[in-house]
Every structure is written in structure tokens, then in C-alpha cells.
Amino acid sequence: MKNVIFIAPPSAGKGTLSNMLKDLGYLHISTGDMLRSEINKKTEIGNLVKEIISKGNLVSDEIVFNLIENKLKTNSLPFILDGFPRTLKQAEMLNELFIKLNIDNYEVIYLDISLEEALKRALGRLTCECGKSYNIYNEEFKPKKEGICDMCGKNLIKRNDDNEESFKVRFQTFIENNKPIMDYYEKKNKLKIVDTIEGTNMVFAKVKEILK
Ligand code: AMP
User: Fold this and answer.
1) Whose CA is nearest to atom 2 of ligand 1?
2) Which of 5, 17, 182, 185 could bridge to 81 as Cys pair (CB 3.0-4.6 Å)?
3) How many alpha carbons lie under 13 Å from residue 139 in its C-beta half-sphere?
4) Residue 15 above 90 pLDDT?
5) What is the chain's alpha carbon radius of gyration, rounded to the nearest angstrom?
6) Is pLDDT above 90 for 198?
7) Whether residue 12 has pLDDT greater than 90
8) Strand 125-127 and strand 133-135: pairing?
9) Which parts of 6-124 fold into alpha helices (H)?
């Protein structure tokens, strides 16, 4: 299986697809999850990024790149990059790292979604610390018991940047930064686009086909 870089607006379903790919033996590397873990552990990095994240703005390229570099240097599984790169600079830094680590077996998958659909998903999203994600506005993704994870029984959490104000900043920031990233990977002939409107199972089937 090929390595994969997911680039997608917030709430397009990167996390859900990553969880499905994990079952096929993939290592899920999410910069958002790593940063939230730093915040929860109250580390120096966590304290530095807490406010930036809660407002929906981007953390510095250097901080996120260091997290990614450490993960990729110490793992040999096929990997999913979820939430990185988010700027052209990050894409260039990643390219340098791939050259250093001899990684060329990868695809970049863009998950397409409209602002309206993404906002609806974000406002209904609940997550569990085990990585499972739910949506209270979608019958298919509701937890069986309100507020409780079906998988591990822990209480579900609402991300504090999943409110309308932060979400719109995150979506807008994404749109502004994303075009040069898409162009960058298109030129490398690495870019595939998948429309998420068809539902999770169909999207997953398409993603698996691309990564074969
Ligand atoms: P996510 O879980 O991917 O939606 O990320 C949550 C937040 O973490 C983002 O809104 C940013 O504030 C920060 N973040 C995650 N990945 C990156 C990145 N590659 N570059 C800068 N900031 C990031």
C-alpha cells in the first residue's frame, strides 16, 4: 500500500477515513491530534499553541514540521499524513524530508466538500480520545448512547474549535493556503481528487483503489 497525504478542508472526513485505513495497517499521523495532545499534557509547545488553535489560526511551520519529522524518522509503517502540509512552505519542507528519508511511494488525496456541508459536520461532531469520531446530525454516525463512545465507553468531547466562528476562520484559512499546495502536487503528478458527497463507504473504496 502507498503512503497517503490527505489534504482537505476541515470536517471533510480525513479523521474518519484515517481510522478506516488504520485497520489496514496504516500509521495515522495527525498534526491536529499531536498538537491537542501537547495542549492536554501542558507542555511548552502546548502552552504556546493553545490560543492559536482555539481561534482557528495556523501554528508555525517549524513547530508542526518538527512533530512530523520525529514521527517519520522513527516509523516504518505505511503512513497517513492528516492535516499536514497546510502551507506551501510545509509542502516544500516535507519534500526535502522525503528526499532525505528516501520516500517516493505516496499519493496526495484531496477530499472535496462544500462550506455548508463541512460546517454542518463540524457543528455536530463529537470525538473520543480513542480516535473515534461521531456526528449527532447524521443517523449513520450518531453514538448508540448519547455522549458515550460505542467503541470504548468513554465520554465524548466537543472540540473547542468546532464552533461556527472558529470553523469559518479555519475553512477560509484552508482555502487561501490550499491552492498553491494543490498546484505543487499537481505538477509532481501526485494529486487525486475525491468528492466526499458520495458518502463514507464510497469515498473509502475510491481511496483504497488509489492507494493499491
Ligand atoms: P485539525 O485537527 O487538523 O483540524 O487541526 C486543528 C488545528 O491545529 C488547526 O486549526 C491548526 O490550528 C492546528 N494545525 C494542525 N495542523 C497544522 C499544520 N499543518 N500547520 C499549522 N497548524 C496546524
Assistant:
1) 32
2) 5
3) 0
4) no
5) 16
6) no
7) yes
8) antiparallel
9) 14-22, 31-40, 44-55, 61-73, 88-101, 115-124
3-state DSSP assignment of residue 134: strand
Ligand 1 atom with the smallest distance to the CA of 85 is 19
Cis amide prior to 85 (ω within 30 degrees): yes
DSSP state of 131: S
Instruction: Give the span between the Cα atoms of 57 and 53, in whole angstroms.
Output: 6
pLDDT at 70: 94
Which pTM value belongs to this model?
0.87
Distance CA 196, CA 198 (A): 5
Phi, psi of 95 (to 5 degrees): -60, -45
What pLDDT sits at residue 75?
86
Q: How confident is the model at residue 67 (pLDDT cuts 50, 70, 90)?
A: very high
Rounded to whole angstroms, the maximal C-alpha distance in the chain is 47
Per-range mean pLDDT, top range of 39-48, 115-124, 133-142: 39-48
Q: Ligand 1 in contact with 31 (CB < 6 A)? A: yes
Dihedral (CA of 89, 91, 96, 101) sign: positive
13 touches ligand 1 (CB under 6 Å):
no
Query: Phi and psi of 32, rounded to 5°?
Result: -60, -45
In 10 A of CB 76, how many CB atoms? Answer: 7
Q: How far is the CA of 41 from the centre of ligand 1 (A)?
A: 17
Cα–Cα dist 135/140, whole Å = 8
Cβ pair 94, 84 in contact under 8 A: yes
Average pLDDT over residues 153-180: 92
- Joined grid coordinates for residue 35: 498538537
